[in-house]
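Notebook B, p. 112. Complex prediction, attempt 2.
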Amino acid sequence: MKHGRKFELTYSKDIIALIIALIAIIILTGILIPGFATPLHMMLVLYSNAALGILALAETYVILTGEIDFSIGSVFWFVTVIGAITMNGKELLVPLLICLALGLLVGFINGVFTSLLRIPSIITTLAMMIILTGGLYVITGGGGHGKAAPELTAFSVGRTFGIPNMVLLWIILAIALYVIQERSVFGLALRAVGSNPRAAYCSGINVSLIKLMVFVISGFLSAVAGLLYLGYARTPYPLFESGVGVGATLSLQSIAAVVIGGTSFYGGRGGVHRTFIGVLLLAILSSALISLGLGYEWQLIFYGVVILVVTGAYIRLIR
Amino acid sequence: MRMSRLRKIFGDWFIWIFLLVFWGISSALSPFFRTLSTFATIILTAVPIALVALGQTYVILTGEFDLSVGAVASLATAIASETMQLNWPAAIVLVLLVALIIGFLNGFALIKLRVGSFIVTLAMMFIVSGIALIIRPSPGGFIAEEFENLMLYNVGGFPVTAFLILVIAGFLGEMILQRRVLGREIYATGGNPEAAQAMGINVSKVKIAVFMISGFCAALAGLFIAARIRSGNAIVGAPYLFDSFTAVFMGGTLVTGGIGNYRNSLAAALLIASISRILQFLEVSIWYQFVIKGLLLLGVAGAQLISVKRRGLILS
């Protein structure tokens, strides 16, 4: 697969623009807010966004194939709750396996409905989100139950070489997924399916299988993110947003991060490296707003404006 | 020939038949279900869902999405609760105007930025929710009593206004789609935008129009919710985003646009409103409604998709 020279050039131009924007924002906030651009605070920003970062990585693969996964936030909360109940402050290994299996199972069901039964992923994953929300309500009745195993907590809040484990795992996952995306047959197929499913099918790629695998990976990574967060939060209290699916906010945030990173919503173009920067951008902006004394409502407005400005700019850059 | 015609009618009205069967079984199972008060509650619950779904049906028929409907409904309650003290009819006009502007901006940004409606309306959803929270940080405010009484007007427990809203929404929504130029243009745009453009349809105009309709409908839903909860609340509209999708997809409208109608979305809205009722009477935990809603969405959407495919309307 050889790209035209021009495509390669523009492709790197807009990611450089994104990195410049990120650095500019860090410098600007560093000047405006004392103590903001310090390594200590930056590490805190990374630490508190590691779970979202992993969810956004999962979402990226799905969006690369031209599909969407609304259920990742719900899987995240479902796993934290199931994990806390089954661990109950003692067990580690069996609950851990149960949770990861749950993530795989949900991803598999999403994948089967989407790729084999051909129900659009927006319907499948929306339905899955509603079902998981119901499941959570039925199991917990709305409150917090159980407690994370001490080993898990030790891992989530612990550090290796001075870097929080959660951040380390996020970065390792990002690099691993990047390598798969750029260097493996699967990664190539992923983008081929996203840019033109029919052409991919004709060139011998098993489109259904690729999509199925993408949803399974997405479910698995959501479960990993949920477990990490469980260790950090110890007893999770999922936000039972009045009637909305549990985790809808998380799903939408991760979609926002993917989009801001510049992964095309129509599939095929973009990647996890962009999403990584997208999460950083969103995280630093949110943190800066909080430091400036602006609350959640201003964060929401900022999210919206950033999405519009950045995606609009991409279109201009790529054209 | 006769058989296939029957099958077509069954396919076209599938969700209504499903709804009637569902109501029939529910009434047979529970004596509490076949009461006027249950029917009234279902109607009152269905009104906002049906209104939001009306706009969403139009948007999805053109092949786009509107993720901002829930936020617009919330904003409507927020603005209404802040301004109704002065003059309630003027407040309603203001709310509807704001919603039309938001809808216009959605359509305009979609055409100018060319990044897809999903992203544009996602951004708009964030922005509008933020503004709603700034206007109304905590639930409360004032809703004019005259407006409340008008919206909830009932005769012997039968919610006349709510029922009329459903009937009018159903009639207007379906008439514009099937009998007006705009409706035909919506179908053409969703079916094949390039072909529609080549035929001389101003696709951009149609898209702006559907987003304005969607904003308008979401604001109407918000006003009705405000009358029901007698206050403003900056997050109350959020669930209606997903309810609108559920209603539209359950109603068999195709995600890619071009195929579908409003009458079936309306039936789906009534079905969604009925589910929590029947579960309550069956003494099943109310929380199972989410599970059942999700399974229904999957089942009905799958069934409709298969029937559409069987009739050869779309290629797999």
